[in-house]
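ok trying again, last paste got cut off:
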Amino acid sequence: MSTPLHRLQDLGQSVWYDNIHRALLDSGRLREYVDRYAVSGVTSNPSIFEQAISGSRDYDDALRLAVEHGTDDPEALFWEVAIRDIQDAADVLRDIYEASGGSDGFVSLELPPRLSHDTEGSVQLGAELFTRLDRPNAMIKVPGTREGIGAIEELTVFGVNVNVTLLFSLEQWRAVADAYLRGLERRVDAGDDLDVASVASYFISRIDAKANQRLPSELHNRLGVASAQLAHWRRLSFSGVRPQRLLWASTSTKDPELSETFYVSALAKAGTVNTMPEATMLAFARAGEVVGTMPTDGAEAQGWVPRAVAEGIDLDALGEELQAEGDTSFADAFERLLACIRTKVGKLRSEDERRKVRP
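nice, full thing came through this time. structure:
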């Protein structure tokens, strides 16, 4: 059955699902989403894993086994269960990866926030996790902070697929694109292959949510899409290599006045990715509209952006503010995830102790 999501696919835009949990894999629902909703990639984040671990018993056996084998650090336990999920999702999407020549079918795993401002640590753990995942269609998520820029270049040199996160401005995106190209150029100089993929995740609705607080109503919900259009218009490419695709993240609407599918329709464009939470994906599958494609020349964006600037919006400063807030929010989510794992492990140990004392 064809849906509006398949029309995005026909247009040349990849539909990625922003969710992962053990039941999604064990039930076969991810495979169903691939077939029914044109899903060709998966992204994950700490909040998603926290909900999955705390809200079900799906991870109990894996956590119990890891503890029995001597692993009790919450972060180490997280990697034990998360890596298996990413591997299994990557296996579901492997056919897409192969059929696309290695340009689609990816599953992303995020570095911990303690490394957001640690280039060396990000490179070391990013390479280690990519090796442990042992899937060509795995991606490591690295934030586009100043320190993350160096990690993106080095990981690209090492042949690690990178999903760059927390991008909110053209300045941040340009730095990320340049880092990816530098990494590829160094691979060329070393005689290595260029079979490396990357996406740059531009967070759309968060831009509007912040800018709307400072703009008159006629400019509300315009800046996020306009910024995305400018990034796409100015995107960089390097002859002979796979381009770093722009990924539209945070495409669920924050403003109740907007349609649930507003950003998905507005950001329809070949050669890009849209990663959607389940509610947005299902809403677009039911009633989404692909009314055209995002303008290529940036003309529409160049109408809205100057008006926002005239109202006092500094786009680069806004991007820095949003990135810092996103980094803090990510750190809080990861701490909640680790606390969730500690609590879960404590409950499992109590259950095991009670079993031992029963007659």
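cool. The longest helix spans residues 315-357. The beta strands are 14-18, 39-43, 107-110, 138-143, 162-167, 198-203, 245-249, 273-276.
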